[in-house]
Structures are given as C-alpha cells and as structure tokens.
Amino acid sequence: MIHTSIHAHGRGAIPRAKKNRTFGDGVILALLIVGGLVMMFPLIVLLLNAFKTTADYNASGPLSWPHEFSLTGLVTFWNRVDFPQKVWNSVWTSGLVAVLAVALSVINSFALGIGRVKGRRWIILLIMLANMMPQEALLYPLYIMFKSMGLYNSLWSIVIIFTVIQSAFGTYLLSSVYGTFPKAILEAATIDGASRWKILKNIVFPISTPTLSVMLVFFFIWTWNEYMIPMSFLVDNSTQTVPIAISSLTGDRLMDVTTTAAASLISIVPTLIFYLIFQRTLSRGITTGAIK
Question: What percent of the chain has pLDDT over 90?
Fold first, then answer.
C-alpha cells in the first residue's frame, strides 16, 4: 500500500499543499507595485526629459512624451564637461576606496574582534561616534591638513578621506561579526602552528568573503555618489567627478533642464552596470550572511 501510494504521486515525490492567496496577500502585492512605481517615478521623468529638445520641454512640460527623439542634451553634456574624464575620475576613486576600505576594515576588525586588543569596546565606541559625525564638521580641518600636505585639488585626497570614512563603518560592522567567530577553529589553527597572518588569510578571510563582497559594492556606490567633500577639494575641471560635473550645469539664473536630465540619466549608467555585474555576488553575500 505504501509503495503503491508513493509511486502514484510520481517517483516518490510528496505532493505539496497549494497555498491559497488571501485578500491580504493581494493588498500587499498591490501596495508593493504602487511603491515600486513611486520609486521609479524620478527615473521615468528623467527618461521623458533626457531625450527632449528645449523647445519641446517648454511647450509640453516635464511629464509629456517627447514629440521627437533628440540626443542634444546628451551630446551637450558629454562635450561640455568632458564626461569620459569625469567617469574615469569617479571609477578610479570609488574603486580604489572600496578596495582599500574593505582591506583596512578586515585588518582592524581582526584585531578588535579576534585579536581582542585591550580597550576594544572603547575603540569600537569611538569608531561608532566617528561614524555619526557630520561631514560638514570635517571640512575645515581636512582642508588645512591636505593643503599643508600638498594634496589639495588631488584625487588622492578624496581616496584617503573616504577610505578612512568607509573603513570606520566597515570596522564597526565586521568587528561584531568577528567577535562571534568560533574559538575552536582559531585554537586548532594555533595548535597546528598557524601564525596570525595565516589565520587571517586562510581561515577568516575566506569565510567572510560574502560579507566583504557586499561591503565592496556598497562602498563603491557610496563613494561614487559623494558630492560635498569632492566639491570642496577638487577645484580643477580635470580632477572633478561625475556628481560635480552635473552640478556645473546649473547656475543662479540659468538651468538647461533637458541637458541636466540627460546628465543625470547618463551618470547612473556606470553604477548601474557595476551593480548588475556584482548583483549575483551581492545577493549571495546577503543570503549567506542571513543564513549564518
């Protein structure tokens, strides 16, 4: 009887009970769709206006469909600000900051979470308080410091500043994770003669790779979108990043809306490509961290 009933459902597969969707599920789904459309609304407005002419925008407004497809705004922005140079500046600074900040976070967190340095709780508290400090409070002392070092108006100043800022957050995050690392594994590695460096390189780092990949993606995007400090420290046109290039299109009495819309649209393309490339890594890292 048991054998017959099992094969009756197809190779021993146990039938799954179908879940009936309730009215509440439909309401939640509808709210999620509405929320998604609200979040997509700014992007839709950019798409509508990025390919309009100025005359078309003035005649029909920002929410109408373009009467003719125009690349004037994109071409104007591309040539006016030397967009390839701005993209390279943003990619170079954001990529370097992401890599250095992750590496510094790992080293700091290994010392605080596993090395158990003296006063680790006070150090972590100071790092947390540093994360809460507004960037406006850092501008003047950073300006004096980098001016005296000869790094003002240099991309290296941006790399150094945001490596420290991002690694402070990464250290605060990772130190709590490393603090719960299984001691049995560390003790076994120590008995086998592994040094601190080998424990970090061969045990701790491979296990925490999913978390580090998530941090790498976020650090890149956060640094890419930074505006205030790069605007204050990058004066020459050749050193400026993409967000600063977009802000240069607006003035006190003049703003080309279609060019600004085209600039905003094209500026998110590199970060969107970066996100799509690392999407699987990002989702895998979040899922692995949730399982652990």
Answer: 16
The whole-model pTM stands at 0.76
Model confidence over 152-167: pLDDT tens digits?
999 999 999 999 999 9
Dump pLDDT digits (tens) for 76-103.
888 888 888 999 999 999 999 999 999 9
- Residue 26: how many CB atoms within 10 A of its CB? 10
CB neighbours of 267 closer than 8 A, spacing ≥ 6? 242, 243, 245, 246
pLDDT at 287 over 50: no
CA distance 159 to 151: 11
Query: Could you say which of 3.90.580.10, 3.40.640.10, 1.10.600.10, 1.10.3720.10 is the CATH number of the domain covering 82-291?
Result: 1.10.3720.10
**Where do the domains of the chain lie?**
22-70, 82-291
pLDDT exceeds cutoff 70 at 16 = no
- To the nearest 10°, the Cα dihedral for 13, 18, 19, 23? 170
